[in-house]
Structures are given as C-alpha cells and as structure tokens.
Amino acid sequence: MKKLLRIREASQILGVSVSTLRRWEKEGKLKPIRVGKERRYDYDKLMEFLGQASDNAVAIYGRVSSADQKKDLERQIEFLRKQVEGKYEKIYEIKDIASGIKEGRKGLLKLIELAKLKKIKAIYITYPDRLTRFGYQYFEEFFNALGVEVISVDGKDMKEPEKELVKDLIEILTSFAGRLYGLRANKIKKAIEELKNE
C-alpha cells in the first residue's frame, strides 16, 4: 500500500515551501495525487525525486574551532568553492565554528540531514579532521551508506594551526575531569592549566 503524504509533510521532506510544491505541480515537475480536493504525495515518488535532485548537488564543509579563526574558515570555503565551481548545479555551503570533537555541531547535523534526504551526492572537505577529530572512517562509512561520497581535498595551506589541536585536547581533558566527579579533579585541572600555559 502506498504511503501518501499531505502537502505540508511533502514540503518538509523536500526542504521546500508549500508554494514551491504548488508551482512545481503547475510546471509538471512533481505531480501529486488528488484525493478529493486535497493533494497527496507518494512517499516513494518523493524519494525518487530527491535522488534525481541529488545527481548534480554537493555540499562543501568548513570548520574551525573558535571565532578568532573566521578568516581561516573563509579561506577553506573559498578553496572548496574553486574545487567544485562549474561542476555541479547546486552547491550547499556548510560551516561550523566548534571543536572537531563536539557532538551536535549545527553544520555537521545539516550535512547528515542533506544526506538522509538524498539532496547531495558528495561532501567536499579540505582535510579529514575538518569533518571530525576522531572516528573519520565511521563518518565516511555512514555517509557512503547513504549514497554520499566524502571527498577530502588536500588543502595544503588550509591545514589548521597547532593551537586548534591543543584546544581539542583541553576539551577532552575537561570532559574527562567532569566525568570523574571530583576524583583527582584538582590534579587534572592543574594539568589543563599547564597545557593552556604551554
């Protein structure tokens, strides 16, 4: 039995407005099924449509750890733009200002959403550690399973400074210190302060 969706549900899946869906209907781009006066969209047909839409769409993703590295972030994005310009019809530009070990980064979640909705065929990054500091192969396998290739372009000058790695290490130590509920916390805090001073 076909799964039929209302126009609002279909618009959310496709990531477009209801008015865009109505316009596409007039253009013959995506035809709904009429149930009385209401429109219904076949879920499987929407998935096919998303697959077609992703044939020539990619995402470029840049990340830095802190706001004082915004210039580095813009350099990453500009470098990636040059890698993809003229090759694809649609390019999503996704950015994060957050540690590479932080969960729930808005940009990373957006990449996952685009991949799940089959809106992109590839993700371009300058280096694997831009996507994640740890577990890159798991992320790569996850995106591949969704039909999305992760392409790491050698950014050379885009390589991050060592201080970003230190910030990630501090975040890891701070996280573990919190989990120890005070056990040897003073020693760990002292080590973090020493690391910051270094």
UniProtKB/TrEMBL annotation:
Superkingdom field: Bacteria
Coiled coil: 63-90
UniProt cross-references to SUPFAM superfamilies, sorted A to Z: Putative DNA-binding domain (SSF46955), Resolvase-like (SSF53041)
GO molecular function: DNA binding; DNA strand exchange activity
PROSITE patterns according to UniProt: HTH_MERR_2, RECOMBINASES_3
Keywords assigned by UniProt, alphabetized: Coiled coil
Name by which UniProt lists this protein: DNA binding domain-containing protein, excisionase family
Originating organism: Venenivibrio stagnispumantis
